[in-house]
Amino acid sequence: MLDTPHTVREITDRIRGHIEGDPLLGDLWISGEVLESTVSRSGHVFFTLAGDEAQIRCVLFRMNALRQRTLPSSGAACVAHGRVEVYASEGTYQFYVDLVEEAGIGLAALEFELLRQQLESEGLFSEDRKRPLPASPGIIGVITSESGAVWHDIQNVIRRRFPFARLLLAPAAVQGENAPRSIHQALQSLIIDGRAEVIIIARGGGSVSDLSAFNDEALVRAVFAAPVPVVSAIGHETDWTLLDLVADLRAPTPSAAAELVSPSIGTKLATLEQSLSLHVDRFERELAARTMDADRLATSLDRSGPLALIHDYRVHLHELEATSSSITRQYLEESERLLERSRDRLTAEARSEFESHKERAARAASLLQALSPTRTLIRGYAFVEHVDTGLPLRSASSAVPGQQVRTRMLDGSFDSVISNVSASIP
Amino acid sequence: MTTELANSIALWQTASTDGTFEEAMSALEAIVQLLDSGNLTLDESLDCFELGARLSARCQTLLEQAELRVELVQRSLEPEPDSEPPF
Questions:
Q1: What is d(CA B31, CA B9) in angstroms, rounded to the nearest whole number?
Q2: Does B67 sit within 8 Å of A188, measured CB to CB?
Q3: Which positions in chain B touch A158 (Cβ < 8 Å)?
Q4: If A10 and its partner were Cys, which of A6, A16, A229, B87 is the partner (CB 3.0–4.6 Å)?
């Protein structure tokens, strides 16, 4: 049975359905030699990729063409990414290219470049969206390996520059297969915790392949969505990861990241103290000026004002003092003369009395001499007195054992304690 | 002295005795700014200067006493491999 003829449109749609239903043809890389590359007036680039006696027509639309580092030039070997679609009005299929790179670049690098361009076109790396870091963050989130020099470096820098900060460490594996998820989770826990005012994602140096974790699309999008600024410190000067591009700030090293997030309060304080001390000079100048003013004022007051009056009083006072002191002097001199006369008289009287006393004393002395115990002492006797009272011990019966007594002899004395008392029977 | 200045001075005095480092530091900054502006009488300047000296001493003391606090944030998410968009 003869089928009803199909229309061109039907067949074209059928072919289109086959091609566009193939998942490979919707997202693929094709390598080949570039032929017949032309740029249209509207900026689209048309070329052909050829190889192994096959060809495919390619188009790179203006919007995509603008993003390319190099445009396909005839004769060059290159790799292009895009999708294959049917171009119905010409009855052909075409390769719609969104990325062209020179051949020889590894697939990983091509994927990286593709993702970079994609995220860039979405605005993830836009300079406008970089947020400023907080001036003095009280709480700093850190995502890095718990063990290792990086974490210690960060602590040391913050301790030195801004010891008031609190560091929240969200430990993460920064290398290996699990790194992207581990870092992503650490970021989420810091975001859920909510306290960190800025977040550092840090890692020490390493091989380029180890950096793939920081090119992970999910991680890059999570950093973009983070509510607080994120600083990347991946430890590579030359290679930029996508994390570096999306971060609000990229630091060359973890220590540098720590420095960037923490204000150096020591320096700031020193600056303030210095500007404060500059005012001392000003004060001194002003004080000198005011002192001069005050001096001038005082001088003019001296001539006319109350100070002149005070001066007059003072002169008067001096005169009064002079007068009164002369009166006093006269009085004093007179008193002295009186005193002298009295003293002379007293001396005379005292002398006669002294003479009679002297005679009596001599008499008493000879009498005493007769009674003096010294004479007895000379003969070898001693007398005993209580040490505490100084009273003589006149009888054995008044001696109490344990009491201290002093025995006086002609040439001195000695102390002893009464130990044994025996009264002699009369 | 204006009431505004008197109020500020009262605040700064509190900062110089009980303030945190940030409070003492920002008070010190405000004082230096005020002194730099040169709009004060000599007496006011001297008052501010003295207060500034005390605030800087307070900052130095707090700085010497400060100790970095470190805390571990525990993982609050379970692994959710399916939730990640494909590469």
A1: 9
A2: no
A3: 68
A4: A6
